[in-house]
Amino acid sequence: MSVNVKIVNKSHHQLPDYQTVLSAGMDLKANTDEPIALKPMERWLFPTGIYIQLPEGYEAQIRPRSGLAAKYGVTVTNAPGTIDADYTGEIKVSLINLSRDTVVIQPGERIAQMVVAKYEKVTWNEVSVLDETERGDGGFGSTGRN
Predict the structure, then answer these.
(1) In Å, how far from its chain's centre is CA 99?
(2) Gap between the Cα atoms of 146 and 144, Å rounded
(3) Residue 131: pLDDT band with limits 50, 70, 90
(4) Which of 27, 26, 29, 37 is nearest to 11 (CA)?
(5) Can you tell me the distance from the alpha carbon of 103 to that of 81, in angstroms, rounded to the nearest whole number?
(6) Rounded to an integer, what distance in angstroms lies between the CA atom of residue 111 and that of residue 48?
(7) With contact defined as beta carbons under 8 Å apart, do 114 and 28 qualify?
(8) Burial zone of 87 (CB within 10 Å; 0-12 exposed, 13-18 middle, 19+ buried)
(9) Which residues touch 45 (CB under 8 Å, ≥6 apart)?
(10) pLDDT for 137
(11) In three state form, how does the secondary structure of the chain look?
């Protein structure tokens, strides 16, 4: 199943694409004119040159690329970032270098993944007490380490 999404490409690159047939996310590329050196703990907002208009009931999630994160310590600062259906501005990706080394991001390099997902709106049902569950109010770590 696929959903029809309007897209404007003002980048120097091809449209975001799936790398494999079963990929959930499309790669977004850095739309820069020159390499950007990210020093350790430095953040930079990368333009993509991509503008989308999602149908109502859908969002786009911006997620880190596992290779950049695992190999180089570069990740998306607000992962996952959310693009709402009423936002039609340029998609930008905020990256941070969590490594000890400077990492250079090249023009056109794949910097993040975008996953388009359907979501449900919530209607609140205000009550004075919630139903009992096995976990109850057990928070972080309450279900054990393994």
Answers:
(1) 20
(2) 6
(3) very high
(4) 29
(5) 22
(6) 9
(7) yes
(8) middle
(9) 92, 93, 94
(10) 82
(11) CCCCCEEEECCCCCCCEECCCCCCCEEEECCCCCCEEECCCCEEEEEEEEEEECCCCEEEEEEECHHHHHHHCEEECCCCEEECCCCCCEEEEEEEECCCCCEEECCCCEEEEEEEEECCCCCCCCCCCCCCCCCCCCCCCCCCCC
Cα–Cα distance, 141 to 87 (Å, whole number):
37
Given a cut of 80, is residue 144 above it in pLDDT?
Answer: no
Token pair for 50? 């991509």
Q: Measured in whole angstroms, how far is the alpha carbon of residue 100 from the centre of its chain?
A: 23
Other beta carbons within 10 Å of 52: 21
Whether this model's pTM surpasses 0.70: yes
